[in-house]
Amino acid sequence: MKLKNQVALITGGGGVLGGAIARKLAAEGAKIVLFDIRAEFAARNAEAVIAAAGVAEPVGLDITDAAEVRRVIDELHARHGRIDILVNCAGGSARGRMKSFHEQSLDVVRDIIGVNLFGTLHCIHAVSRHMVAAGSGNIVNIGSAVAVQGLVGCVDYAASKGAILSATKSLAKELSPLGINVNCVSPGQIPREHPDDPDDFARRHSFLNRIGTPDDIASLVVYLTLPEAGFITGQNYIVDGGRTLAMQGSDLRA
Ligand SMILES: NC(=O)c1ccc[n+]([C@@H]2O[C@H](COP(=O)([O-])OP(=O)(O)OC[C@H]3O[C@@H](n4cnc5c(N)ncnc54)[C@H](O)[C@@H]3O)[C@@H](O)[C@H]2O)c1
User: Fold this and answer.
1) Shortest CA distance to 140 belongs to which of 219, 69, 72?
2) Could you tell which of 11, 21, 36, 168 is best to mutate to test the pocket of ligand 1, judged by most ligand atoms within 8 Å of the CB?
3) SS3 (DSSP) at 99
4) Is the pLDDT of residue 41 over 60?
5) Architecture of the domain made up of 7-238
């Protein structure tokens, strides 16, 4: 166990990727705090960690509320005496509300950027002060392959994730000399429910003969928090089964 006694905050901790990251960080001995606006989902993922003999605490929290984020993080720090790891995983695309940008409601655009970008920055702002004071810490932001490749109907989402990627690099330049590593993991398509036709899904979304899983993402996130990754900072890792290798019109596998 390489993260024994460390405290790890995971935003979007009630989600599919957040849950997998929580289980793997806990298996390395970290105490887990799961933030999610859906408190009951955070509680369910915390129960899974506890059932596997880990330590986890769910917290119902809307990360778009900067003052509340600051209050909760300061309270956690006061109680635990440390915050070692922050994984920014809350957010997502507009899903059922996705539209071409010229037809999209600006309220939806503000919603997506508000959670994905501002929510993430609120958490980093509140946590990094404690990490700077401690002279150590690890921040892993969850981006998206969409940030580097673009996607129709996803301008708001792409803009938010592209900004996270840029922020990761600037934060690494500011914080790494103070002992804090900052990196980004950008998933490709990881289904939240098992697809009806996994082979077809795999073929459409990767160059490997299987679907991507939450554990594929969680494994890299955990690695980036371990001592052996200590010389890695300011980087973005795309975990997408090679999907971003595709060139439209040049796919000979069709
Ligand atoms: N699953 C994928 O294919 C995929 C691909 C690329 C990037 N991602 C990114 O990975 C992250 C996790 O995605 P997921 O697939 O686990 O989705 P998910 O919906 O299962 O998890 C996201 C969680 O964020 C929470 N959340 C939303 N708004 C919040 C707020 N204001 N405050 C606190 N929590 C809030 C949700 O309640 C949810 O539990 C997201 O940032 C997403 O953009 C996912």
Assistant:
1) 219
2) 36
3) coil
4) yes
5) 3-Layer(aba) Sandwich (3.40)
